[in-house]
Amino acid sequence: MDAVLLAFNMVFSVKTLIPVFFAALFGLFVGAVPGLTATMATALLVPVTFFMEPIPAIATIVTATAMAIFSGDIPGCLLRMPGTPASAAYADEAYAMTRKGQAETALGAGLVFSVIGGLFGTIVLIVSAPALAEVALKFSSFEYFWLVLLGLTCAIVISARSPLKGIVSLLIGLLIACVGLGNPAGFPRFTFGNTELMGGIGLIPLMIGMFAISEIIRFVVDTSPPLKIVDQPIHNVFKGMWALAVQYPMQVLRGSVLGTLVGALPGAGADIAAWMSYAISKKMSKEPEKFGTGHVEGIVESGAANNSAVAGAWIPALVFGIPGDSITAIVIGVLYMKNMNPGPSLFTQNPQNIYAVYMLFILANLIMIPLGWMCIKAAKKILKVPRNILMPVILLFCIVGSFAINNTPFDLTVMLVAGVVAYVMEENGFPVAPAILGVVLGGMLEENFVTSMIKADGNIFAFFERPLAAGLGVLTLAAWFLPPLIRRLRTIAGA
Amino acid sequence: VKINDAIFGAIFLLLGVVILVHVQAFPKIPGQQVGPAIFPGLVSAGLAVCGVLLIISGIRHRAEHPWHEMADWMRSPQHLLGFGAIVAGLVVYIIFAEAVGFLLLAPLLLLLWFKVLGVRTGLAIVVAVVATLVIWYTFYKLLRVPLPWGVLTKFAF
Fold first, then answer.
1. Can you tell me the distance from the alpha carbon of A273 to that of A302, in angstroms, rounded to the nearest whole number?
2. How far is A47 from chain B (nearest CA, A)?
3. Min Cα–Cα distance to chain A from B109, Å
4. φ, ψ for residue A408 (rounded to 5)?
5. Quick check: ipTM above 0.90?
6. B105 in contact with A at a CB cutoff of 8 Å?
7. I need a surface site. Which of A190, A199, B20, B36 has the fewest CB within 10 A?
8. Which pLDDT band holds residue A425 (cuts at 50, 70, 90)?
9. Helices and strands counted in chain A (H then E)
10. What is the mean pLDDT of residues A158-178?
């Protein structure tokens, strides 16, 4: 119980609550401006959290991401343009509701069911993470090797439209992780005599490049005409929400469960959770014909799903150090910087830190109600913020933020190259998420691979000797070979 | 910029092979089968294989996807200028920040970006100066990030 009290004191202190408040406003704003994503919000926050104590640092990220995923709904509803990719699944639906004069119901459902989904995901996190940590304590390098490989496989299977391009993206990430001295042999790889490269390629400038610079480039080269805001007075967004909750309890539950699960699977985050959830909602609905015409049911379900995914993604991140999505990939970087290395020992040695994370999630989701309401009220003003002024300022912020970590201009080069490469890759259908997972997990994969190889002494079957390792190994191989096998069998059966 | 998969495939194949050759020079660890070369070796071999597969799929879908397609913005001088200004601005900062200093270079770059994106001159100047000062104050004064002074070093405070 002492740890809970300790956590309570850490969370409910001025040092944490003030950053939480500002992070909430920041997250709401970033989410609500189309072209600025929740991942970008996290990447931009990292240089600032670098200078904070661990708990306030985590607090800002938790709060900002939860808020941004909700407020992404707002421009979807008023502009038909999602504020974050996580709202893209139902932006058309929300906009159709607005055209029918139901903007407040669409926004209210987005807000209320975001909170419910977020709290659901948090409860699952609280219940499952310690239990998984118990299991993780028994893991040796063999289990970790398979687990990381399984995670990377999931990232490709779920997130990539073309698995081949997903694999390429992942391999590039793994190669980036190889640069420098940070390998089991301590041999400088791919440094070409450059001392800057000895320490490896900085994660933070890389992320700022991939998630912020690429987004800025996308804005600058965007040729689509400006969107018009629907001018409609928005009154009480909470009106009728109770009725919706009573009408659609199954949808809320299904959305939250699916969202948490998809979030917890590596590589897939809130955006994929929302797409899947919206599709399932339509399939299971009693009135699927209404979907797309301004029907709130899908918004209720996928609105809950994307926010529950935010919390779900933290489960593997905290327990195994395997990020559930791009945001937690950044979070893991922050945890290492703060000496809160993810893994089961986080739960046994400093439980107060974990309790603090739980409390922060609950807090963030609860303050979302008043702050989200304020954000909806201010929505028209936020959407009028000129992006041609905003983007250059963000660009300058990126420069300073990337420089702030190691104080070297070399990191700015990393940021620029990563930004341009990420932009070109995404334009050509190469997903960025597997690359970032590769960078974050490359070291861990290699270390456990090499340790296991040494232990196995050339005997490949050693990778399957321990029951846990065998289970994970079989699961991984199944994830690799089953989907193409099933496809092949189907074509044979069909022919 | 839409580029045919085959071109990407060729690049990745080349990259994979070059790395694969490069890692052969990595030292072996006596008495062990796994050295620093094995992991990047496996990854780059995988990359080379993926490169070949991309080449095949690119050639197969040659009809729908030409070698390269210009994106809309590449035909619009205004958007090309925007893209160029962002990249060139960053390159200029990387090269000259140390010599010129943050407080001089940052507002100039902001001004350039604002003008390219069509912000009114008066507003652009005001925001460029204010944004520079706010970011400088936050990072240099509050967070103690050593942003370069450059030519203003004499006046550093």
1. 7
2. 10
3. 9
4. -130, 135
5. yes
6. no
7. A199
8. very high
9. 25, 0
10. 88
Which pLDDT band holds residue A79 (cuts at 50, 70, 90)?
Answer: confident
Inform me whether the pLDDT recorded for A272 exceeds 80.
yes
CB contact under 8 A, B135 and A412: no
Contacts of A352 (CB under 8 A, 6+ apart): A3, A4, A6, A7, A10
Mean pLDDT for the stretch of residues B39-55: 95
Identity of the amino acid at A228 = K
d(CA B8, CA B53): 10
* DSSP code for A213: I
Host H or E run for residue A481 = helix A467-494
Residues A31-49, mean pLDDT to the nearest whole number: 88
Following DSSP, what letter does each residue of A282-339 receive, concatenated?
A: HHH-S-GGGTTSS-SHHHHHHHHHHHHHHHHTHHHHHHHS--SSHHHHHHHHHHHHTT
pLDDT of A458 > 80? The answer is no
* B43 touching A (Cβ < 8 Å): yes
Reference A365, options A107, A126, A70, A85; nearest CA is: A70
| CB within 8 Å: A393 and B110 | yes
User: Which B residues 125-154 touch A at CB under 8 Å?
Assistant: 127, 131-132, 135, 139, 143, 145-147
Average pLDDT over residues A95-112: 89
Contact A175 B36 (CB under 8 A): no
A99 three-state secondary structure: helix
CA-only gyration radius of chain B, Å = 24
Residues 24-83 of A with CB under 8 A from B: 48, 51
> Looking at the complex, does the CB of residue B83 fall below 8 Å from at least one CB of chain A?
yes
pLDDT digits (tens, 9 = 90+) for A197-229: 888 888 889 989 998 999 999 999 887 777 777
For A31, A59, A149, A333, the CA distances from A323, given in Å and listed in that order, are 21, 17, 13, 10
The whole-number pLDDT of residue A495 equals: 56
- Report yes or no: B128 and B107 within 8 Å, Cβ to Cβ: yes
Each residue's pLDDT tens digit, A320-376:
999 988 889 888 888 888 888 899 988 888 889 999 999 999 999 999 999 999 999
Give the residue on A whose Cα is nearest the Cα of B39: A446
pLDDT in tens, B77-88: 888 999 999 999
Cβ-based neighbour number of residue A345 at 10 Å:
12
DSSP A358-392: HHHHHHHHHHHHHHHHHHHHTHHHHHTS-HHHHHH
A168 with B50: Cβ contact below 8 A: yes
Rounded CA-CA distance A111/A84 in Å is 15
Q: Which residues of B touch A428 (CB under 8 A)?
A: 1-3, 5, 8
Q: How far does A111 lie from chain B, in Å, by closest CA? A: 32
pLDDT average, residue stretch B65-90 = 86
- Inform me whether the C-beta atom of residue B78 falls under 8 Å from chain A C-beta atoms: no
| Short-list A144, A173, A135, CA closest to A448 | A144
DSSP assignment, residue B24? Answer: T
Q: How far is CA B104 from the centre of its chain?
A: 23
* Residue in A187, A404, A458 nearest the CB of B26: A187
Average pLDDT value for residue range A249-253: 91
- Tell me what the mean pLDDT of segment A268-295 comes to: 89
* Contact yes or no for B83/B70 (Cβ under 8 A): no
| Residue A25 clears pLDDT 80, i.e. is over it | yes
